């Protein structure tokens, strides 16, 4: 697997705000990676630095082995479509033409199919599109560009559930046909969970979780039942959360379960549920260094 | 063969033909009509040249087109993997190409204007006393330089606005006024106004064009320096 993104010790400091602190990770290609985190966590800043649109205070960024800043050879291999994307005062067809000028692998047929799918009127001025339609335009440009590194910052903002499903389907179909490196920053983690090969969680500018999705599935479990039973079950294990209501207790524990664990849970009349990626991201943000839960690569 | 990034930027900008091609000469045509109406309604007097200022609209539109070239089009270009340097070079190349073509229109307009006796009414629309009133090639050069200068000046303002917002743009404008005021103070201290007046009265159109070209070079350097630190 070729390294598409290599970030080492990246920090970004603004006058009164530390947006990113000592972030380090690598992402190979092909891969679909999810960049997860709360509002203001630093996701957009990170993506902007990756795309050469923002400057790092310290640290290094390598895209396909080269620095992205003012590097045409690297930049023409990547695209960043943002939630708050600013478009020129043009029509939809002009934006499509503009993108086709810049990308050697631009797929005219895919662009046309996506425009049809999202029912985007080619001749409508972009400023008169609804928020969802502007988002759909960004998705169309981002996918049809077939850039080797495609960065989507909150790509489904304003899209309804049907359009989001269409996006996931199209993204997966196109990725299967043309594997490349795609990074999605999103809040809707569980919706996109099936797409993701890799998950990175950012909180307060720090990378708190970086792991393959397969390793995260089943990495933590919610245990529910009588307090005594739950306490016995989770004894000696790392817990991320514990809440009691009367005699009923709900605890989130780190670690994979084997057959003996399941038999014990059955014996104690406990209910077990896998923790979803969304919940894991929340816990990772709350417990930046949970032993057992796969932590971010040391920087 | 794939176009170079700079050529792609030019083609990208020219997707908005209304702004770059139609708007300046739409305003020129409108100004021309207004001037014709005004001259029809006012007495001719005893002059061979009835100077009008309609052509100034084209120069002002070039200033706003320069602002527009970075205000809205720049963020999407950077999204599409264009570097700041390529974008800047593309915009400047387009500005120079437009300036050359527009300057030629002015020069040809002067020729037509002289051949038709000022459009049959002694109107000097394409001519400006002293500045654009020489041979066609001189007018072409001067108009080209002025068009390019205003476009790049507008672009620089647009870049400053993108980088520093309204407060920064206000400071930028105020700083220029401060420099001019300081120059005036220095000229007063060293009793240089007489020499300055002499310079302006003896400066030829060619000399003026050279001065404009020097200012253009400063604008280009300032614009590029601003672009290099721009974030979106």
From TrEMBL, chain A:
SUPFAM superfamilies associated with the record: P-loop containing nucleoside triphosphate hydrolases
Alphabetical list of SMART domains matching this protein: AAA (SM00382)
InterPro entries for this protein: AAA+_ATPase, ABC_transporter-like_ATP-bd, ABC_Transporter_VariousFunc, P-loop_NTPase
GO molecular function, one term: ATP hydrolysis activity
ABC transporter domain boundaries: 5-229
PANTHER family, sorted: ABC TRANSPORTER ATP-BINDING PROTEIN ALBC-RELATED
Name of the protein: ABC-2 type transport system ATP-binding protein
Species: Actinacidiphila rubida
Taxonomy of the source species: Bacteria, Bacillati, Actinomycetota, Actinomycetes, Kitasatosporales
Automatic annotation (TrEMBL), chain B:
Keywords in alphabetical order: Membrane, Transmembrane, Transmembrane helix
Transmembrane region(s): 20-39, 51-74, 86-112, 137-159, 171-190, 196-225
Keyword Membrane carried by entry: yes
Protein name: Uncharacterized protein
């Amino acid at each position: 697997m070729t390294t598409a993104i290599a970030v080492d010790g990246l920090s970004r400091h603004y006058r009164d705000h530390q947006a990113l602190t000592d972030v380090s990770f690598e992402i190979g290609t092909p891969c679909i990676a999810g960049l997860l985190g709360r509002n203001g966590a630093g996701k957009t800043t990170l993506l902007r630095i990756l795309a050469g649109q923002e400057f790092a205070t310290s640290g290094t960024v390598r895209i396909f082995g080269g620095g992205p800043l003012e590097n045409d050879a690297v930049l023409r291999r990547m695209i960043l479509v943002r939630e708050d994307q600013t478009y020129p005062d043009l029509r939809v067809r002009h934006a499509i033409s503009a993108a086709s000028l810049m990308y050697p692998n631009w797929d005219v047929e895919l662009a046309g199919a996506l425009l049809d799918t999202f029912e985007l009127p080619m001749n409508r001025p972009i400023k008169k599109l609804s928020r969802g339609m502007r988002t759909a335009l960004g998705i169309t440009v981002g996918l049809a560009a077939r850039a080797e590194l495609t960065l989507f910052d909150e790509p489904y903002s304003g899209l309804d559930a049907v359009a989001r499903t269409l996006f996931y389907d199209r993204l997966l179909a196109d990725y299967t046909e043309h594997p490349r490196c795609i990074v999605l920053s999103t809040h809707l983690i569980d919706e996109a969970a099936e797409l993701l090969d890799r998950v990175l969680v950012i909180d307060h500018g720090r990378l708190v979780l970086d792991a393959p999705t397969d390793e995260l599935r089943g990495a933590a479990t919610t245990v529910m039942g009588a307090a005594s039973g739950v306490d016995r079950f989770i004894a000696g294990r790392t817990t991320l959360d514990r809440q009691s209501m009367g005699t009923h207790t709900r605890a989130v524990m780190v670690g994979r379960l084997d057959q003996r664990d399941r038999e014990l849970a059955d014996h104690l009349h406990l209910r077990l549920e896998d923790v979803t990626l969304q919940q894991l991201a929340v816990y990772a943000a709350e417990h930046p260094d949970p032993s057992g839960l796969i932590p971010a690569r040391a920087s | 063969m794939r176009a170079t990034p700079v050529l792609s930027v030019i083609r990208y900008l020219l997707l908005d033909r209304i702004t770059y091609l139609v708007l300046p000469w739409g305003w020129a045509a409108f100004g021309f009509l207004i001037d014709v109406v005004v001259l029809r309604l006012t007495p001719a007097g005893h002059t061979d040249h009835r100077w009008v200022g309609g052509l100034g609209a084209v120069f002002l539109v070039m200033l706003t087109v320069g602002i527009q070239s970075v205000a809205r089009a720049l963020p999407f270009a950077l999204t599409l993997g264009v570097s700041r340097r390529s974008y800047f070079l593309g915009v400047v190349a387009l500005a120079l190409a437009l300036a050359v073509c527009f300057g030629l229109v002015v020069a040809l307009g002067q020729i037509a204007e002289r051949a038709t006796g000022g459009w049959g009414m002694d109107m000097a629309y394409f001519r400006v006393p002293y500045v654009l009133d020489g041979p066609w090639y001189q007018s072409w050069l001067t108009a080209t330089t002025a068009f390019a200068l205003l476009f790049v000046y507008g672009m620089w303002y647009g870049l400053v606005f993108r980088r520093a917002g309204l407060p920064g743009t206000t400071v930028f404008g105020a700083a220029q006024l401060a420099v001019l005021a300081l120059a005036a103070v220095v000229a007063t201290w060293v009793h240089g106004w007489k020499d300055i007046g002499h310079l302006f009265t003896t400066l030829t159109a060619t000399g003026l064009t050279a001065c404009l070209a020097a200012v253009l070079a400063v604008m280009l350097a300032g614009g590029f320096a601003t672009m290099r630190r721009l974030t979106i």
